[in-house]
Specification:
The protein is built from 2 helices and 9 strands. The protein is an alpha+beta fold.
Length: about 140
């Protein structure tokens, strides 16, 4: 069974010192009971992302290595496309809170960029993901 969640944007967190945008999507992989997070981080300068940190509102944090798919320059921005597998249990936990989680991308040069949803967007996304998670739970083998 394969579930794909259409790409959406996540807002740059206030603590970022440089402007960046994030576009991401999730694909549920039942054979691994995990979720692939594919994301494109757009920045002014090239960024070689090597890890992703999922930070929950409670402060709990999990870190994952990322696979760099490509880095390219388009007009005046650099796009870094990455893939990361997140276990299903964490993906469920990410959407159980009333507040949004934060995704923090880091590079070898110790540059980090944080992204999170606005409260309004969080509420909308959370409802969609809950529905998809319930479908996955019903169809698990």
């Amino acid at each position: 069974m394969l579930y794909f969640i259409f790409p959406t944007d996540m807002e740059s967190a206030k603590e970022n010192t440089s402007k960046a945008t994030l576009n991401y999507d999730f694909t549920y992989l039942d054979s691994q009971d995990s979720v692939a997070l594919l994301s494109t981080c757009s920045t002014k300068n090239p960024l070689l992302i090597d890890s992703l940190h999922v930070v929950l509102p409670s402060g709990k944090q999990r870190s994952f290595p990322v696979e760099r798919i490509f880095n390219e320059k388009k007009k005046n921005k650099w796009n870094s496309r990455t893939r990361c597998n997140i276990d299903f249990a964490l993906w469920e936990e990410m959407y159980k809170n009333e507040q949004a989680y934060t995704l923090v991308y880091t590079s070898r040069s110790n540059t980090s960029l944080a992204f999170t949803d606005s409260p309004r967007k969080w509420k909308k996304n959370k409802n969609i993901i809950h529905f998809i998670q319930s479908l996955i739970a019903m169809n698990r083998k």
